[in-house]
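In this notation, each integer encodes one residue's backbone shape. One such record reads:

___
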Amino acid sequence: MSGFVKKGQTISGNEHKVKESQGLSKKSGFSRLWALKRLKTLFPAVLILALFLVSACTQEQSAATTKTSQQPAFFNTSLHQGKLAIRYFDLQAEEKSGDAILLTAPDGKTMLIDAGIPVGGPQLEERLNKLGVKKLDAVVSTHPHIDHIGGLTTLLITKPVGAYYHNGIAHNTETYRKVQQLLKEKSIPQTMLREGDHVEWSPGITIEVLNPSAEISQNSFEKWGTEELNNHGLVLLVTHGDNRILFTGDIYKNQEYKLVERYGDKLRAKLMDAPHHGDITSSSGTFIRAVQPEIAVLSANVLQSLDVLKRYEKEGATVYNTGLNGNILFVSDGATISSYPDKERKMITRP
């Protein structure tokens, strides 16, 4: 009888604890079951959130990698396959670094117009290597000043050169003599250019010489000063389809006036190299209006004149300066010219 509970009988303390424990166990079981069902319900949402966060991190890392590894447009040769490329080099120096411009024809031929000062030579060598340029098919020296031929003291040693074009004017400097010696040692063919000459370089590209005059004698320049030497530098008009590009060397305003008088509308060009690196000695309003450029380049590691920059902008040109924009790539497809500066310059105002 001890195994049964009679009506009205009180359950002992131990028996009560057993019952209570059984009740708690049952409640605990229900709680665990509810938690499992809840987790099962939330799991897909948690999984999706986790996958989203991982994906976002991966995309962010991928974007950062792409941004970091992506090369500047200046070195992207795929941008001008079958087109004409014009590259302005931003040469770094504590002094004025001069001009250095590389043309790459649709067929891949190369022409270097000027080469900056001597310390710019190794910089040009490095960038030409990065561009995959193993040979310079042609080199043009607009005139024999150090900020235009200096870099050749490196490049004539490190790069094979197919042909050398110059204005036929000598200069009494160590840099000039060194360049001449290297040209002789390397047996590089040399051609003197004068007004009216044409350079045969690449099919579909015409290069006409507008300056200097054919009338100057070989000995007339021995006592010339800087201005006279600059005014007798090469001025080249390059035509690719409907696009015309004018390279002006270092001519001064008085020579600009002579060219306007001589050529008139023939000077018109879509892209213009500002004479004398954008210095106040040059870029007269008369000359700019005759050329009517859509794009003007002030090739210098410093902005030499804000007045000159504003003068071009006043005439409707988009102005680039290597000192402010860095290296600059222009691509001609024969109808339009696209611009790819390393960096955009900020609006410049007077202090």
The domain at 73-341 is CATH 3.60.15.10 (Metallo-beta-lactamase; Chain A).
